[in-house]
Protein backbone atom coordinates (compact mmCIF):
# COMPACT_ATOMS: atom_id res chain seq x y z
CA UNK A 1 0.00 0.00 0.00
CA UNK A 2 1.35 3.39 -1.01
CA UNK A 3 2.01 6.27 1.37
CA UNK A 4 1.04 9.02 1.91
CA UNK A 5 -2.44 7.67 2.55
CA UNK A 6 -5.49 9.81 3.24
CA UNK A 7 -7.87 8.24 5.74
CA UNK A 8 -9.87 9.08 8.88
CA UNK A 9 -9.40 8.79 12.61
CA UNK A 10 -11.21 9.62 15.83
CA UNK A 11 -9.19 12.67 16.81
CA UNK A 12 -9.47 14.53 20.10
CA UNK A 13 -8.48 18.09 19.21
CA UNK A 14 -8.32 19.69 22.66
CA UNK A 15 -8.17 18.35 26.24
CA UNK A 16 -11.68 17.30 27.23
CA UNK A 17 -12.96 17.71 23.68
CA UNK A 18 -15.06 15.10 21.84
CA UNK A 19 -13.79 12.25 19.66
CA UNK A 20 -14.30 13.59 16.12
CA UNK A 21 -13.98 11.54 12.95
CA UNK A 22 -11.41 13.67 11.17
CA UNK A 23 -9.54 13.42 7.86
CA UNK A 24 -5.89 12.58 8.43
CA UNK A 25 -2.95 11.72 6.23
CA UNK A 26 -0.54 8.92 7.05
CA UNK A 27 2.73 10.34 5.84
CA UNK A 28 5.43 7.72 6.11
CA UNK A 29 6.51 4.39 7.51
CA UNK A 30 9.83 3.94 9.22
CA UNK A 31 11.85 0.78 8.65
CA UNK A 32 10.80 -0.54 12.08
CA UNK A 33 7.09 0.22 11.72
CA UNK A 34 4.04 -1.56 10.34
CA UNK A 35 0.95 -0.13 8.65
CA UNK A 36 -2.22 -1.73 9.99
CA UNK A 37 -5.74 -1.39 8.63
CA UNK A 38 -7.70 -1.34 11.86
CA UNK A 39 -10.77 -3.57 11.94
CA UNK A 40 -11.61 -3.30 15.65
CA UNK A 41 -10.47 -1.55 18.78
CA UNK A 42 -11.42 -2.08 22.38
CA UNK A 43 -12.17 0.99 24.47
CA UNK A 44 -10.25 1.25 27.73
CA UNK A 45 -10.57 3.78 30.55
CA UNK A 46 -7.07 4.99 29.70
CA UNK A 47 -8.45 6.32 26.39
CA UNK A 48 -10.96 8.44 28.33
CA UNK A 49 -8.19 9.56 30.68
CA UNK A 50 -6.18 10.64 27.64
CA UNK A 51 -9.18 12.42 26.11
CA UNK A 52 -9.80 14.33 29.33
CA UNK A 53 -6.26 15.70 29.33
CA UNK A 54 -5.28 13.44 32.24
CA UNK A 55 -1.81 12.88 30.82
CA UNK A 56 -1.02 16.56 31.39
CA UNK A 57 2.14 17.82 29.73
CA UNK A 58 3.09 14.30 28.57
CA UNK A 59 0.67 14.47 25.64
CA UNK A 60 0.02 17.41 23.38
CA UNK A 61 -3.18 17.70 21.35
CA UNK A 62 -4.52 16.84 18.82
CA UNK A 63 -4.24 13.17 19.62
CA UNK A 64 -5.67 9.86 18.39
CA UNK A 65 -6.46 7.55 21.34
CA UNK A 66 -6.97 3.78 21.22
CA UNK A 67 -4.66 1.01 22.36
CA UNK A 68 -6.52 -2.27 21.94
CA UNK A 69 -6.37 -2.47 18.17
CA UNK A 70 -6.85 -5.48 15.90
CA UNK A 71 -6.53 -5.48 12.14
CA UNK A 72 -4.68 -6.51 9.01
CA UNK A 73 -1.10 -5.65 8.05
CA UNK A 74 -1.06 -3.53 4.87
CA UNK A 75 2.65 -2.63 4.74
CA UNK A 76 5.77 -3.72 6.58
CA UNK A 77 8.86 -1.56 7.19
CA UNK A 78 12.13 -2.59 5.58
CA UNK A 79 13.89 -3.49 8.83
CA UNK A 80 11.39 -5.40 10.92
CA UNK A 81 13.65 -7.23 13.32
CA UNK A 82 11.31 -9.66 14.97
CA UNK A 83 11.76 -12.33 12.32
CA UNK A 84 10.37 -14.97 14.65
CA UNK A 85 6.85 -13.77 13.86
CA UNK A 86 7.65 -13.35 10.12
CA UNK A 87 5.07 -10.60 9.80
CA UNK A 88 3.65 -10.25 6.30
CA UNK A 89 1.20 -8.08 4.44
CA UNK A 90 -2.25 -9.61 4.90
CA UNK A 91 -1.58 -11.07 8.35
CA UNK A 92 -4.25 -10.61 11.01
CA UNK A 93 -2.72 -9.02 14.08
CA UNK A 94 -3.58 -7.94 17.61
CA UNK A 95 -1.89 -4.83 18.96
CA UNK A 96 -0.45 -4.41 22.41
CA UNK A 97 1.72 -1.76 24.07
CA UNK A 98 5.07 -0.62 22.66
CA UNK A 99 8.49 -1.58 24.02
CA UNK A 100 11.97 -0.46 22.99
CA UNK A 101 13.24 -3.97 22.31
CA UNK A 102 16.79 -3.15 23.40
CA UNK A 103 16.86 -2.40 27.16
CA UNK A 104 17.73 -5.19 29.60
CA UNK A 105 14.11 -6.25 30.41
CA UNK A 106 13.19 -6.17 26.70
CA UNK A 107 16.16 -8.36 25.79
CA UNK A 108 14.96 -10.77 28.48
CA UNK A 109 11.46 -10.92 26.92
CA UNK A 110 9.86 -8.74 29.59
CA UNK A 111 8.32 -6.01 27.45
CA UNK A 112 6.02 -4.81 30.25
CA UNK A 113 9.09 -3.84 32.28
CA UNK A 114 10.68 -1.85 29.44
CA UNK A 115 12.59 1.09 30.90
CA UNK A 116 11.16 3.28 28.11
CA UNK A 117 7.57 2.24 28.81
CA UNK A 118 6.20 5.67 29.74
CA UNK A 119 7.71 7.77 26.93
CA UNK A 120 7.00 5.06 24.35
CA UNK A 121 3.39 4.48 25.33
CA UNK A 122 1.98 7.64 26.81
CA UNK A 123 3.42 10.49 24.73
CA UNK A 124 1.90 9.34 21.43
CA UNK A 125 4.99 10.22 19.41
CA UNK A 126 7.95 8.33 18.01
CA UNK A 127 11.20 8.00 19.87
CA UNK A 128 13.69 9.54 19.99
CA UNK A 129 12.85 12.50 17.74
CA UNK A 130 9.23 13.10 18.83
CA UNK A 131 7.94 12.97 15.27
CA UNK A 132 4.54 11.63 14.21
CA UNK A 133 3.67 9.41 11.25
CA UNK A 134 0.37 11.24 10.64
CA UNK A 135 -1.22 14.67 10.42
CA UNK A 136 -4.69 16.16 10.59
CA UNK A 137 -5.80 17.39 7.16
CA UNK A 138 -7.52 20.74 6.92
CA UNK A 139 -8.64 22.20 3.65
CA UNK A 140 -10.77 25.22 2.87
CA UNK A 141 -11.18 25.15 -0.86
CA UNK A 142 -7.79 25.78 -2.40
CA UNK A 143 -5.76 25.88 0.81
CA UNK A 144 -4.63 22.69 2.53
CA UNK A 145 -2.73 22.33 5.80
CA UNK A 146 -1.30 19.31 7.60
CA UNK A 147 -1.06 19.59 11.40
CA UNK A 148 0.89 16.84 13.18
CA UNK A 149 -1.32 14.61 15.32
CA UNK A 150 -0.14 12.34 18.11
CA UNK A 151 -0.71 9.03 16.39
CA UNK A 152 1.24 6.43 18.36
CA UNK A 153 -0.54 6.28 21.69
CA UNK A 154 0.67 2.96 23.17
CA UNK A 155 2.59 2.66 19.91
CA UNK A 156 -0.64 2.26 17.92
CA UNK A 157 -3.42 4.93 18.28
CA UNK A 158 -5.99 2.35 17.22
CA UNK A 159 -8.98 4.75 16.94
CA UNK A 160 -8.01 5.17 13.31
CA UNK A 161 -8.95 3.39 10.10
CA UNK A 162 -5.24 2.98 9.37
CA UNK A 163 -2.35 3.39 11.77
CA UNK A 164 1.43 3.21 11.66
CA UNK A 165 2.34 1.04 14.61
CA UNK A 166 5.52 0.26 16.45
CA UNK A 167 6.84 -3.18 15.51
CA UNK A 168 6.90 -4.44 19.09
CA UNK A 169 3.15 -3.79 19.45
CA UNK A 170 2.26 -6.46 16.95
CA UNK A 171 1.20 -10.00 17.83
CA UNK A 172 0.05 -12.32 15.08
CA UNK A 173 -3.50 -13.62 15.47
CA UNK A 174 -4.00 -17.15 14.15
CA UNK A 175 -7.78 -16.69 14.25
CA UNK A 176 -8.66 -13.80 11.90
CA UNK A 177 -12.37 -14.53 12.44
CA UNK A 178 -11.95 -13.70 16.14
CA UNK A 179 -10.24 -10.32 15.79
CA UNK A 180 -13.15 -8.52 17.44
CA UNK A 181 -13.23 -10.83 20.42
CA UNK A 182 -9.47 -10.76 20.92
CA UNK A 183 -8.82 -7.03 20.33
CA UNK A 184 -8.75 -6.20 24.08
CA UNK A 185 -6.12 -8.88 24.78
CA UNK A 186 -3.43 -6.26 24.23
CA UNK A 187 -4.36 -4.18 27.26
CA UNK A 188 -7.35 -4.80 29.52
CA UNK A 189 -7.47 -8.57 29.41
CA UNK A 190 -3.76 -9.24 29.75
CA UNK A 191 -3.53 -6.68 32.56
CA UNK A 192 -6.03 -8.52 34.74
CA UNK A 193 -5.25 -12.07 33.69
CA UNK A 194 -1.49 -11.55 33.70
CA UNK A 195 -1.50 -10.29 37.28
CA UNK A 196 -3.06 -13.60 38.31
CA UNK A 197 -1.27 -15.97 35.92
CA UNK A 198 2.17 -14.35 35.71
CA UNK A 199 2.59 -12.91 39.20
CA UNK A 200 0.21 -14.22 41.87
CA UNK A 201 -0.38 -17.80 40.70
CA UNK A 202 -2.87 -18.63 43.47
CA UNK A 203 -3.09 -22.26 44.50
CA UNK A 204 -6.54 -23.87 44.61
CA UNK A 205 -6.84 -23.52 48.39
CA UNK A 206 -6.06 -19.81 48.32
CA UNK A 207 -8.21 -16.68 48.16
CA UNK A 208 -8.31 -13.62 45.91
CA UNK A 209 -10.15 -10.29 46.17
CA UNK A 210 -10.61 -8.10 43.09
CA UNK A 211 -11.58 -4.45 43.59
CA UNK A 212 -13.40 -3.04 40.57
CA UNK A 213 -15.42 -5.16 38.12
CA UNK A 214 -14.38 -3.57 34.84
CA UNK A 215 -12.70 -5.49 32.04
CA UNK A 216 -9.41 -5.71 33.96
CA UNK A 217 -11.17 -7.00 37.06
CA UNK A 218 -13.20 -9.51 35.07
CA UNK A 219 -10.05 -10.80 33.37
CA UNK A 220 -8.46 -11.31 36.80
CA UNK A 221 -11.58 -13.08 38.11
CA UNK A 222 -11.78 -15.38 35.07
CA UNK A 223 -8.06 -16.20 35.31
CA UNK A 224 -8.36 -17.00 39.03
CA UNK A 225 -11.36 -19.21 38.26
CA UNK A 226 -9.32 -20.96 35.55
CA UNK A 227 -6.86 -21.89 38.32
CA UNK A 228 -9.75 -23.20 40.47
CA UNK A 229 -9.01 -20.67 43.23
CA UNK A 230 -11.18 -21.51 46.24
CA UNK A 231 -12.54 -18.05 46.99
CA UNK A 232 -12.73 -15.20 44.52
CA UNK A 233 -14.33 -12.06 45.93
CA UNK A 234 -15.50 -9.38 43.49
CA UNK A 235 -16.01 -5.87 44.86
CA UNK A 236 -17.83 -3.10 43.00
CA UNK A 237 -20.68 -0.60 43.32
CA UNK A 238 -22.79 -1.81 40.36
CA UNK A 239 -25.02 -4.78 41.15
CA UNK A 240 -25.43 -5.79 37.51
CA UNK A 241 -21.68 -6.18 37.06
CA UNK A 242 -21.35 -8.16 40.29
CA UNK A 243 -24.11 -10.54 39.18
CA UNK A 244 -22.18 -11.21 35.97
CA UNK A 245 -18.96 -11.63 37.94
CA UNK A 246 -20.66 -14.38 39.95
CA UNK A 247 -21.62 -16.13 36.71
CA UNK A 248 -18.07 -15.95 35.38
CA UNK A 249 -16.13 -17.24 38.35
CA UNK A 250 -16.44 -14.99 41.40
CA UNK A 251 -17.50 -17.07 44.40
CA UNK A 252 -18.59 -14.00 46.38
CA UNK A 253 -19.60 -10.46 45.52
CA UNK A 254 -19.60 -7.37 47.72
CA UNK A 255 -21.54 -4.31 46.66
CA UNK A 256 -19.92 -1.51 48.64
CA UNK A 257 -22.86 0.77 47.87
CA UNK A 258 -25.15 -1.59 49.77
CA UNK A 259 -23.24 -2.89 52.78
CA UNK A 260 -23.66 -1.23 56.14
CA UNK A 261 -20.19 -1.97 57.54
CA UNK A 262 -16.76 -1.78 55.97
CA UNK A 263 -15.63 -3.86 53.02
CA UNK A 264 -12.53 -5.05 54.88
CA UNK A 265 -14.76 -6.46 57.61
CA UNK A 266 -16.92 -8.19 54.99
CA UNK A 267 -13.88 -9.79 53.39
CA UNK A 268 -12.58 -10.95 56.76
CA UNK A 269 -15.98 -12.46 57.53
CA UNK A 270 -15.96 -14.35 54.24
CA UNK A 271 -12.49 -15.74 54.88
CA UNK A 272 -12.90 -16.97 58.45
CA UNK A 273 -11.29 -13.83 59.83
CA UNK A 274 -8.03 -14.33 57.94
CA UNK A 275 -8.29 -11.96 55.03
CA UNK A 276 -7.28 -12.84 51.45
CA UNK A 277 -4.01 -14.24 50.17
CA UNK A 278 -4.11 -11.97 47.12
CA UNK A 279 -5.83 -8.67 46.46
CA UNK A 280 -5.94 -6.61 43.28
CA UNK A 281 -6.99 -3.00 42.85
CA UNK A 282 -8.10 -2.02 39.37
CA UNK A 283 -9.71 1.29 40.37
CA UNK A 284 -6.73 3.43 41.24
CA UNK A 285 -8.82 5.16 43.92
CA UNK A 286 -6.59 5.84 46.93
CA UNK A 287 -9.19 4.85 49.54
CA UNK A 288 -9.79 1.56 47.71
CA UNK A 289 -6.04 0.88 47.65
CA UNK A 290 -6.05 1.25 51.44
CA UNK A 291 -8.91 -1.27 51.69
CA UNK A 292 -6.99 -3.64 49.43
CA UNK A 293 -3.98 -3.54 51.77
CA UNK A 294 -6.11 -3.87 54.90
CA UNK A 295 -7.91 -7.00 53.70
CA UNK A 296 -4.72 -9.01 53.15
CA UNK A 297 -4.10 -12.18 55.14
CA UNK A 298 -0.80 -12.97 56.84
CA UNK A 299 1.83 -13.25 54.09
CA UNK A 300 -0.58 -11.85 51.51
CA UNK A 301 0.25 -9.94 48.34
CA UNK A 302 -1.58 -6.91 46.98
CA UNK A 303 -1.18 -5.50 43.48
CA UNK A 304 -2.01 -2.03 42.21
CA UNK A 305 -2.82 -2.41 38.53
CA UNK A 306 -5.17 0.53 37.90
CA UNK A 307 -3.80 3.96 37.03
CA UNK A 308 -3.74 6.22 40.07
CA UNK A 309 -3.21 9.98 40.01
CA UNK A 310 0.49 10.52 40.62
CA UNK A 311 -0.01 12.68 43.69
CA UNK A 312 -2.32 10.20 45.44
CA UNK A 313 -1.18 9.25 48.94
CA UNK A 314 -2.47 6.57 51.30
CA UNK A 315 -1.97 5.61 54.93
CA UNK A 316 -0.41 2.22 55.64
CA UNK A 317 -0.12 0.44 58.97
CA UNK A 318 3.59 -0.21 58.53
CA UNK A 319 3.93 -2.21 61.73
CA UNK A 320 1.25 -4.71 60.72
CA UNK A 321 2.62 -4.81 57.19
CA UNK A 322 6.03 -5.80 58.50
CA UNK A 323 4.84 -8.16 61.22
CA UNK A 324 2.44 -9.95 58.88
CA UNK A 325 4.94 -10.21 56.00
CA UNK A 326 2.73 -8.54 53.45
CA UNK A 327 3.75 -7.42 49.98
CA UNK A 328 2.44 -4.58 47.81
CA UNK A 329 3.45 -4.42 44.16
CA UNK A 330 2.70 -2.30 41.13
CA UNK A 331 2.03 -4.29 37.96
CA UNK A 332 1.78 -2.88 34.44
CA UNK A 333 0.07 -4.81 31.65
CA UNK A 334 -0.06 -7.98 33.76
CA UNK A 335 3.75 -8.21 33.70
CA UNK A 336 3.28 -9.83 30.34
CA UNK A 337 5.43 -10.27 27.29
CA UNK A 338 2.62 -9.98 24.72
CA UNK A 339 4.11 -12.14 21.92
CA UNK A 340 4.22 -15.00 24.43
CA UNK A 341 1.31 -14.24 26.76
CA UNK A 342 -1.44 -13.25 24.31
CA UNK A 343 -1.25 -16.63 22.52
CA UNK A 344 -1.50 -18.28 25.96
CA UNK A 345 -4.66 -16.29 26.72
CA UNK A 346 -6.09 -17.21 23.32
CA UNK A 347 -5.47 -20.86 24.16
CA UNK A 348 -7.17 -20.43 27.51
CA UNK A 349 -10.17 -18.92 25.73
CA UNK A 350 -10.27 -21.75 23.18
CA UNK A 351 -10.37 -24.20 26.11
CA UNK A 352 -13.43 -22.41 27.46
CA UNK A 353 -11.58 -21.12 30.53
CA UNK A 354 -11.52 -17.42 29.66
CA UNK A 355 -15.09 -16.61 28.56
CA UNK A 356 -14.53 -13.07 27.29
CA UNK A 357 -17.46 -13.29 24.86
CA UNK A 358 -19.66 -12.83 27.93
CA UNK A 359 -18.28 -9.38 28.74
CA UNK A 360 -17.74 -7.69 25.37
CA UNK A 361 -19.98 -6.08 22.78
CA UNK A 362 -19.12 -4.75 19.31
CA UNK A 363 -20.42 -1.33 18.19
CA UNK A 364 -20.08 0.36 14.80
CA UNK A 365 -17.60 3.22 15.10
CA UNK A 366 -20.44 5.72 14.57
CA UNK A 367 -21.84 4.56 17.94
CA UNK A 368 -18.68 5.34 19.90
CA UNK A 369 -20.46 7.62 22.35
CA UNK A 370 -23.07 4.98 23.14
CA UNK A 371 -20.31 2.41 23.61
CA UNK A 372 -18.59 4.71 26.09
CA UNK A 373 -21.75 5.46 28.04
CA UNK A 374 -22.59 1.73 28.17
CA UNK A 375 -19.15 1.11 29.65
CA UNK A 376 -19.53 3.92 32.17
CA UNK A 377 -22.88 2.77 33.51
CA UNK A 378 -21.92 -0.90 33.55
CA UNK A 379 -24.31 -2.08 30.81
CA UNK A 380 -21.29 -3.48 28.97
CA UNK A 381 -17.96 -4.39 30.51
CA UNK A 382 -15.80 -4.14 27.38
CA UNK A 383 -17.08 -2.20 24.36
CA UNK A 384 -15.28 -2.76 21.07
CA UNK A 385 -15.64 -0.48 18.06
CA UNK A 386 -15.77 -1.81 14.51
CA UNK A 387 -14.38 0.27 11.65
ZN1 LIG B 1 12.79 -1.79 26.51
ZN1 LIG C 1 -5.76 0.09 28.54
TrEMBL record:
Residues 17-385 form the Enoyl reductase (ER) domain. InterPro entries: ADH-like_C, ADH-like_N, ADH_Zn_CS, ER, GroES-like_sf, NAD(P)-bd_dom_sf. It comes from Corynascus novoguineensis. Belongs to the zinc-containing alcohol dehydrogenase family. This is Chaperonin 10-like protein. GO terms for molecular function: oxidoreductase activity; zinc ion binding. Keywords: Metal-binding, Oxidoreductase, Zinc. Pfam families: ADH_N, ADH_zinc_N. The keyword ATP-binding does not apply. Gene3D superfamilies: Medium-chain alcohol dehydrogenases, catalytic domain (3.90.180.10), NAD(P)-binding Rossmann-like Domain (3.40.50.720). It comes from the Eukaryota. Its cofactor is Zn(2+).
